[in-house]
Write a structure and sequence with these properties.
Length: about 100
């Protein structure tokens, strides 16, 4: 249900669906304590305007979804929160294609 909400939220630019879709109910509660500064990074990202934040894959990467113009500030604030907690972090804002996949 949450994966479908995330996809729909991304497709329709619906912040509430994105947030709901990114709120992992299994892995994040079990692993967030393994990432020093996770809660601070989560709070910083949300305060900076991120729609959602979660642990990416098996970790230790934390990923946030935000408007393009907020991506840099969100990433920097998350990295600062993690670093301040003793977990040196590097903010990354990878490019995202707007074309999607092309069958070939």
């Amino acid at each position: 249900r949450r994966a479908a909400a995330l996809i729909s939220g991304l497709e329709h630019a619906d912040p509430d669906l994105i947030k709901f879709g990114m709120e992992d109910q299994i892995a994040v509660p079990a692993r967030h304590h393994l990432i020093p500064g996770f809660e601070a990074a989560l709070k910083a990202a949300r305060a900076a305007g991120a729609f959602g934040v979660t642990i990416s894959g098996s970790g230790p990467t934390i990923v946030a979804v935000a408007l393009k113009e907020l991506a840099g500030p969100v990433a920097k604030l998350m990295a600062t929160a993690l670093t301040n907690a003793g977990n040196k972090a590097t903010p990354l804002t990878p490019a995202v294609t707007e074309k999607g996949m092309v069958a070939g």
